[in-house]
Amino acid sequence: YFYLSKLINGTLVRSSGNINGWEYMLATSYKKIDELTYDFTLRQGVLFQDGTPFNTDSVIENFIFFQKDPFVYSDIHKRLKKVTKISDFQVRFHLHKPYGMLLNDLTTINIYSHAYLQKRGWSTGEGSTSNSTQEPGAYGLGPYILVEGFATGRYQTPTIKLKANPYYYEKGLPYIENITL
Fold it and tell me: Which pLDDT belongs to residue 36?
C-alpha cells in the first residue's frame, strides 16, 4: 500500500536516494526563516487528478485536516503549530519547537483534493494503515489514478488497477498508461 500511495499521491517533497533523502515534488524550494519557521514555494500550474487547481489553499486545508487526525508514527503532529498563506503559491510552516525531521516527514504527508478531504478527511479508519488507498477515485496529485480496488496495509482487493493521470505536472510522464496489480 505504501508504494501504491506513492503512485497516486503527491507530497511537498518526496523521498529520494540523494544525500538529503528527499527532493522537491509539489514544492519547488524552501527557506528556513528561523528554527520555527519555514517558507515553501509551490509548483504552479499543477492540477489534482480531478482537474481542480493545487495551490496554497490546498496545502493549508490538508494540514488543517491532518492536525485534527494525524498519523502518530513521527513527531510532526506534536511539532507543527500551523500552516499559513503567504501568497497563492507560497506557504509558511510554523513549529512549536525546532524539528530537524520536518523535510523527512513532509515526504509522507499526502496532499488530497478538497473532494477527498470532505469525504474521508485524514482518518485512516478501522483496520487501515493508509487513508489514501481505501477507495478508487481521482483524489491525488501523483502520476496514477486508482480506478479499481483498494489496499490499506491490512486489507486489499485481489486486483488493483491504475491509469495514467492526464493532469500530471511532469510533462511526458507517466510512460505507462495502465497498471494492474
Answer: 98
Stated as kind and residue range, the H or E segment containing 34 is strand 27-34
At residue 11, φ and ψ (nearest 5 deg) are: -130, 165
Instruction: Give the residue among 13, 14, 7, 6 at the shortest CA–CA distance from 91.
Output: 13
C-alpha cell recorded at residue 132: 489514501
Q: Are 175 and 164 in contact (CB under 8 A)?
A: no
Lowest-pLDDT range of 32-36, 67-71, 122-126, 147-151: 122-126
Closest CA to 92 of 68, 63, 121, 120: 63
Coil vs helix vs strand at 105: helix
Distance CA 47, CA 113 (A): 9
pLDDT at 84 over 80: yes
For residues 160 and 180, the answer to whether their CB atoms sit within 8 Å is: yes
**pLDDT of res. 80:** 94
| Composition of the chain by helix, strand, coil, percent to 5 | 20, 30, 50
Buried b vs exposed e over 135-162: b needs ≥16 C-beta within 10 Å? ebbbbbbbbbbbeebbbbeeeeeeebbb
pLDDT of residue 162: 98
Q: For residue 101, is pLDDT > 90?
A: yes
